[in-house]
Specification:
Blueprint lengths: L1 H4 L3 E3 L2 H10 L7 E3 L20 E7 L12 H13 L4 E7 L14 E3 L5 H9 L3 E4 L8 H9 L3 E4 L4 H4 L7 E3 L4 H12 L2 H15 L4 H15 L1
Parallel strand pairs: 1-2, 3-4, 3-6, 4-5, 6-7, 7-8
Length: about 230
């Protein structure tokens, strides 16, 4: 396979490096971890944050089929059901990307489905969110993690991909277990009632993502390619 034929492998996170070492018996010296980067100038930090009785949640992804859903979309569907049954607050779920209709009725009043969105529209969507959700079972990044952090949207995520190298619970985001819709609900409820913590997560998230600006990440790729060539 491609792993056995490779002379050197680049991965975006320590999770994938550890997988290759433990499961594929790849020499760790043959693996380089360089994460995704993001445009921290374009995804600017927002200074206005107005929490209300309506919580605006977002998930921007392209779910796979129901049979191979690595994005945890079924967990999101169960979370939406819990949110609808709650008497504590109202919510809007903002979804971008394709294939959501395979999992849920996107015509409901508490769901706003945008399908494919341009980069400029994506930035606007982030600015309208209170929290960004990553409920995946497997991830390479995702790049949306960095975009949300850059804008100052607190991230609630499973411990996958770059999240393991980036987020520390209660400091710059919140990590939850996989397939844990109840835990996701409790985390949203807790953050909504603790605005000071939300502000802390937002500020620290922006500080964290400064290390993932393309001006810092791109030279690492140049160094890697120069070394290999």
């Amino acid at each position: 396979d491609s792993v056995s034929r490779a002379t050197h492998i680049h991965v975006m996170s320590s999770e994938w490096r550890d997988y290759l070492v433990e499961k594929q018996q790849v020499d760790p010296n043959d693996i380089t971890v360089i994460p995704f980067g993001t445009d921290t100038d374009y995804f600017r930090y927002r200074t206005n944050r107005n929490m209300s009785d309506i919580i605006h949640l977002g998930s921007f992804a392209n779910p796979g089929s129901a049979a191979g859903d690595r994005k945890g979309t079924d967990t999101l569907v169960r979370l939406i059901d819990r949110l609808r049954k709650s008497n504590d607050f109202h919510f809007n779920m903002l979804l971008a990307g394709q294939n959501w209709r395979e999992f849920l009725d996107v015509q409901q009043p508490d769901i706003r489905h945008f399908g494919y969105v341009s980069k400029s529209d994506l930035r606007k969507l982030y600015h309208s969110l209170d929290f960004y959700l990553i409920l995946s079972r497997i991830e390479g990044g995702p790049v949306t993690l960095l975009e949300a952090l850059a804008i100052g949207v607190p991230v609630i995520s499973t411990n996958v991909g770059m999240v393991k190298d980036t987020i520390k619970t209660g400091v710059n985001g919140m990590i939850i277990n996989k397939d844990a819709d109840e835990e996701a609900f409790d985390t949203i409820k807790y953050l909504h009632s603790h605005p000071d913590l939300v502000e802390k997560l937002a500020l620290n998230g922006r500080k964290t993502v400064e290390d993932f600006a393309w001006k810092k990440i791109a030279p690492r790729f140049q160094q890697l390619y120069s070394k290999l060539v």
